Amino acid sequence: MHNAITGAAIYTANSEGLDFGAMMDYARKIGGPVLRKLTFHDRGRMLKALAIYLLERKEDFYKISAHTGATRSDSWVDIEGGIGNLFANASLRRQFPDERFYVDGDVAKSSKNGTFIGLHIMVPREGVAIHINAFNFPVWGMLEKIAVNLLAGVPAIVKPATITSYLTEAVFAEIIKSGILPEGSLQLICGSARGILDTIQTQDVVTFTGSAETGRKLKSHPRIVSEGVPFNLEADSLNCSVLGTDVEPGMPEFDIFIKEVTREITTKAGQKCTAIRRIIVPSNKVENVQIALGKRLKSTTIGDPAVEGVRMGPLAGIAQRNEVRERVQQLAKSQQIVIGDLQHFEVVGADKEKGAFLPPLVFLNTDPFVKTDVHNIEAFGPVSTIIPYNGIEQAIELAKMGKGSLVCSLITQDDTIAKEFVLGAASMHGRILVLNNDCAKESTGHGSPMPLLVHGGPGRAGGGEEMGGKRGVLHYMQRTAIQGSPTTLTNITNVYQQGGRQNETNIHPFKKHFEDLQIGDTLITAKHTVTETDITNFANVSGDNFYAHMDATSLEGTIFERRVAHGYFILSKAAGLFVDAKKGPVLLNYGIDECRFTKPVYPGMTIGVKLTVKEKTAQEKKTPEDIAKGIVKWLVDVYDETGETVAIATILTMVKMKKQD
Fold first, then answer.
1. Where does residue 370 rank: exposed (0-12), middle (13-18), buried (19+ CB within 10 A)?
2. Are residues 439 and 548 in the same domain?
3. N or C: which end of the chain has fewer CB within 10 A?
4. In which domain, by residue range, is 311 found?
């Protein structure tokens, strides 16, 4: 492996002697069982600790990253962006229960009387995640993927592209040194991994980031097919950025467009799977864009990133540079270079022949519906093409001619244009950024996949999907439908299912500490007969004088027979019936998850409440002095004198724990 700036040999990678089958067996038998014993909250805290540990050592990684030719800002995206993925996924633990499994979606009632129901649970796959990563983001590529599979409870083997694997190895070595991850939960292969898929099994997951051609070969591997192994392909794509027809030179949006395109051409020397390859511009703005973009790119200093003022470094290696040159020559057969010169450019602080340097290059394609190489050939470097269009429908068609992209961006101030474009182009894009002056300052930009949003795309982009917050975690889990009685499914899931057995106790549940509350503990309250005075008083207090509550003469043509009680009065009165007023373990009302008013309540009707412990989640202590506590979800079932439910809600309370150490 060589320094991208000087061409000097710096590291050697060799995978000879590694037994890939034994590595996977080690992950399945050692790492997997330990991870699966941890809850989502345990795993999330583990990721947070790892993120903090790596962040404290980031400067060491920056020094090594310089060998790849990355500027400080390029390395920031890779290193701190990757660590940020650990933090983001650590925070996701709050969207999961403090359990080893996840209950997915709503209950399916499968019988008339509710004694037979079904629901879905998700459990970790009992295999190993094999991540085959690209060369352009040696840190981010590893961390954004393992953050997700580790939170799901699945071990991983990471195979980075060899050319920059020395940076991946440096971060990996620190991860192992930290001792934060359980043994067997993470392994690394530097060098060739030929044959690694020969021993994969049904419970494994394979992800690949790189060229579509290589990805398709791996995806069709006989073991992938025969074992039914999930394969996520994230391939380089011909992403585009579109300038709206409403944007004129001099508008903030025009400057935003030029800055965004410039950044995507020069960041990481254009070596990004999300980089802008096609610049789609209204035909009457082509000259304006070409001039403005030319000025911007001309001011971009190329050279050794260690030299002050350098804004773009070399490509990752000579092989990458030569490949980009070949692709440029192919594109030049059907379009013209209008910005930059492949042979004549200046490099600061380095030898442009020894290093993997290229200048920013921009083509102009005047007939993109006929000269279609631009929609099929990608130069994976600082290369892009200006493409003219007439009308938003044509812009949509051109964007989709990339045959599937990871991302496209639209710069416009007109939300009508934005809506038409998004709805027309969404089917062929994994992500669409709509950018204008309102959001530009805080925008993460065209080329930045975010941990809580999906990354992937259809067609040429691979047809895969990763990250996306909770969605990404679920890719590493098995969804299973389970059926049975409400009581049985309550006991399996630790979530009370309506109709399940309830445990009435002599002690009011609000007098119990968090640890003493059991799923299914139920309070059956005293009853209250609703009066017209109740309705009038609630209207006076709340200010809600909606006609159905206050004017009996206005009910013709409605579903109501007479004045009806406010739904929020029913819920408030329910609270009055079930709340224990004296000071106890309940610290506060934390909110309402869901609420439905299912039957009108008229004066003279009598209501009662069944309050049942539905679910419990322990909370972390933020400081040693913090109160040890947890969140309890309660099912509030308000029923009338016939036993029929009139309102149903899930409320949350914060409840103190007995033990405060």
1. exposed
2. no
3. C
4. 239-449
